[in-house]
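Milestone 3.1: sequence recovery, worked example.
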C-alpha cells in the first residue's frame, strides 16, 4: 500500500476537477449500481497514469458530450474499493491504470493499461471522446 503523502496529489489531479474518489466497496457499489453513464478511472502511481491516463481523462472531460458521473478508485491505496470495482469488470484481467464506462449499470467500454501505455494524453482523450460520443448522448456543461 502506498502512503497518503505520495498518492493524495495524484488523486487530487482528478478530484480537483470534480471526479469523486470512492474509498469503500459500498461507495463503489452505490456509484456503479445507478442508472445513467458513469466513468470509472482506476488510478495508479505508474508513469502511464501520470503521463497519459489522468491528463487524458482531464482533456476528454472538457468536451460537451461526456458521462453523467465520473468516479475513481486508486490501485494500491483503496484496496477494498478497487477489488469491488473489478468485480464489475470480470471479463478483463486486473489492469491499472484503466478506464471503464458503464451505462445503466452495464459495462459498455473498457480501456486497459495496454490501451493507455505509450499513448499521449491527447491519444487517450481521443479514445475517450469516441467512447463518449457513442454512449453518452446527453450534453453536459463543463465539469458539472
Amino acid at each position: 500500500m502506498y502512503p497518503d503523502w505520495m498518492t493524495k496529489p495524484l488523486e487530487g489531479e482528478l478530484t480537483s476537477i470534480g471526479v469523486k474518489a470512492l474509498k469503500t466497496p459500498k461507495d463503489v457499489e452505490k456509484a456503479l449500481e445507478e442508472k445513467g453513464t458513469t466513468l470509472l478511472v482506476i488510478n495508479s502511481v505508474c508513469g502511464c497514469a501520470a503521463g497519459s491516463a489522468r491528463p487524458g481523462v482531464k482533456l476528454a472531460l472538457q468536451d460537451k458530450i461526456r458521462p453523467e458521473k465520473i468516479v475513481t478508485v486508486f490501485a494500491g491505496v483503496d484496496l477494498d474499493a478497487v477489488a469491488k470495482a473489478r468485480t464489475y469488470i470480470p471479463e478483463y484481467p486486473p489492469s491499472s491504470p484503466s478506464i471503464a464506462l458503464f451505462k445503466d449499470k452495464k459495462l459498455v467500454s473498457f480501456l486497459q493499461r495496454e490501451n493507455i501505455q505509450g499513448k499521449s494524453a491527447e491519444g487517450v482523450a481521443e479514445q475517450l471522446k469516441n467512447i463518449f460520443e457513442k454512449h453518452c448522448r446527453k450534453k453536459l456543461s463543463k465539469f458539472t
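The CA atoms of residues 41 and 103 lie 15 Å apart. The first strand starts at residue 20 and ends at 21.
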